[in-house]
Amino acid sequence: MKLPMLGIINLIHETDEMGVLTQGRCLATLPFGGRYRLIDFVLSSMVNSGVQKVAVFAHTKYRSLMDHLGTGKNWDLHRKQNGLYVLPPAIEDQNDFARGDLYHFYRNRDYFAHGPHEYVVICRSHMICNVNFADVLRHHRDQGADITVVCKANSGNIVGTARKVKVDESGRIKEIQDHFGRLSDEVVSMEMYVMRKDLLIDLIETSLAQGCDHFLRHAINSRLDQLKVSACMYDGMLGVVNNIASYFRHSMELLQPEIGRELFFRPGPIFTKSQGEPPSRYLTGAYVNHSLIANGCEIDGIVENSILFGGVKVKKGAVVRNSIVMHNSVIGEDGSLESCILDKEVQIRPFQQLRGVPEMPFLAIKRKVI
Amino acid sequence: MGRKECVAMLLAGGEGRRLGVLTKDLAKPAVPFGGNYRIIDFTLCNCVNSGIETIGVLTQYQPLVLNQYLGIGSSWGLDSREGGMHVLPPYVGSNGSTWYKGTANAIYQNLGFIERYDPKYVLIISGDHIYKMDYDLLLESHKRSRADATIAVITVPWAEASRFGIMNIDGRGRVTEFAEKPKQPKSNLASMGVYMFSWPALKEMLIRDEADLGSSNDFGKDVIPKMLEEGARLFTYRFDGYWKDVGTIESLWQANMDLLGDKPGLDLNDRSWRIYSVCPNQPAQYVSPTASVQSSIINEGCVIEGEVYHSVLFHGVHVGEGSIVEHAVLMPGAVVGRGARVIRAIVGDNAVIEDGMRVGRADSDEIEVVGSGERIAEHQLKEVEPV
């Protein structure tokens, strides 16, 4: 269970249309599914696949990221050998900040230089899935590919923004377009790239020497005819979460038990930072139905079709419907929510009524009192 | 090793015979409690929350699960460089191997451990009680009265007094009389089995107690009466919070029930006194459209499709559609099929109650127990009958 592979979670210039939900945090630490953060899915996938050395290339608003990842203990990445590395931007002046990911990879090239790992896998944080990278590496070797991209077919119902991919009969990628492209094939890229480490170093150095600094746009897309780029199809549950509609949609999908079971357990469990919350308390006024409830909640009202994160209080007579309520928020007595997303520690005053629609949920910023 | 003001010695060797099938392969302190915890979490967290971070945990009976659970103490923040938590099993020394004969002997055999920290005070506690107590207040009281030993005491119902070490005290809280499990108790002031000793006094007593061949080497039976007899300064510290000895099926069930209701006797949600345990890493609990849950506490990873009323559910429990669970404790991974009934019962971890089975009765005084991993199916109806 040990893969000769370095893990990279690339948070540089991630697509982010989450509005107030990512005002104070990076997309990678957006809370999801009652007790997780987006980054937990790809990180756990790596760990369960046997990737023992993982670097997270942080970019902006990474305080929550440092807090969440800590020493990597919760993912068993607090090791003497290998382990977890959080690499903030190592820039010389503010202008470097806006430069592409290859520049930031280059600035942290020491991370790649040492160690016996033959391969790398580069991922982003906003793909909600449970992938076995050992299978991807096997595919990569079997195909004799230069680069393997994990892709999802039949992606007609993807709400988040994802790149489209054109694959020929042999499984080779002929074209990659941004989400607004006109490509009609229903295959999207999950932005997970497996390749040899020396090829990556070569791509970084060559591209930068040519004045190009974006990994996909410059290093890969311009070389699709020179490099054998192969698609490895993933057939598990995928949520591309980088806008409000996709966040709401994929959160609500977790309420279907089959989807939740698959995502959280297969092929391996999803790990996260444990909050040490007590079990949730259902009081005499509780009426809960079709909902996911994390630990530490106290429910004395009605909760339907909703997701409650840790430590949420739903007071007597309060009603929470079709909503997502993050950690430690309080719904006051006889308050009501319909299609809302409340960030952490929001307080809804007694008798307050808030209403959104599923296509455009009402958003409340962290610590707001309404 | 730096000097520590106070070292705690936690007696966790309890066999817990009266818990029957629940302690078949498990030491009593490792019995699951309160939906998310094991009994020992409460004393460990009392130490951590009181600022005592050097703890020796004395194990003996069926220690496998307990040792695995404790690990290096990281779940309680006790994996520190100096001090922290150390598991102390009986061992083979130059005089041969000896099991811990009694509570006092167990501490005696680990004098070396305590000496390494050279403390001023030693706190003796056990891992089989449920309570939240600030040991720092006990220590303050011990220092104030310049005592050799201070015993934490609680007022118990007269009817139960004969189960405990009972004492009489004078106006200043000094112990005048002590009787271990008296048939005719003279008071209802009971020892909680929580002792704060001044280290020199304790060390001397333990050495003398060990030399006394007639002694059963027990704190309650031998050491405390001897100290009283010799006129040592024995004081009491009165505790008036929630405290429960969970030594029997009935009391274990009752202590779980005490966590329920809108104003529980023991509040697990108190953020100023957190109780930590090992995280089971399960997703959030799912309550289905066919479910109904009230007056209960439910842990992560549960899937509820039936009715759960006034019950405690540990992580990963499944309650099928049409089932009713009332006044029950379901331990980790227990499965209740469809159309089953579990009333006034404790169901062990990973036990399976198959479709339509009934466990426990509403009109019974007894609490029905299903052992861990047991399967209640139609063809083996012992005390169980189909609905």
From TrEMBL, chain A:
The keyword Transferase applies. It holds the Pfam family NTP_transferase. Its EC number is 2.7.7.27. Keywords: Glycogen biosynthesis, Nucleotidyltransferase, Transferase. Residues 287-350 form the Glucose-1-phosphate adenylyltransferase/Bifunctional protein GlmU-like C-terminal hexapeptide domain. InterPro entries: ADP-Glc_PPase (IPR011831), GlgDAde_trans (IPR011832), GlmU/GlgC-like_hexapep (IPR056818), NTP_transferase_dom (IPR005835), Nucleotide-diphossugar_trans (IPR029044), Trimer_LpxA-like_sf (IPR011004). This is Glucose-1-phosphate adenylyltransferase subunit GlgD. It comes from Paenibacillus rhizovicinus. The lineage of its organism: Bacteria, Bacillati, Bacillota, Bacilli, Bacillales.
Automatic annotation (TrEMBL), chain B:
Alpha-D-glucose 1-phosphate binds at Y100, G165, E180, K181, S191. It comes from Paenibacillus rhizovicinus. This is Glucose-1-phosphate adenylyltransferase. SUPFAM superfamilies: Nucleotide-diphospho-sugar transferases, Trimeric LpxA-like enzymes. Belongs to the bacterial/plant glucose-1-phosphate adenylyltransferase family. InterPro entries: ADP-Glc_PPase, ADP_Glu_pyroP_CS, GlgC_bac, GlmU/GlgC-like_hexapep, NTP_transferase_dom, Nucleotide-diphossugar_trans, Trimer_LpxA-like_sf. Coiled coil: none annotated. One of its GO terms (molecular function) is glucose-1-phosphate adenylyltransferase activity.
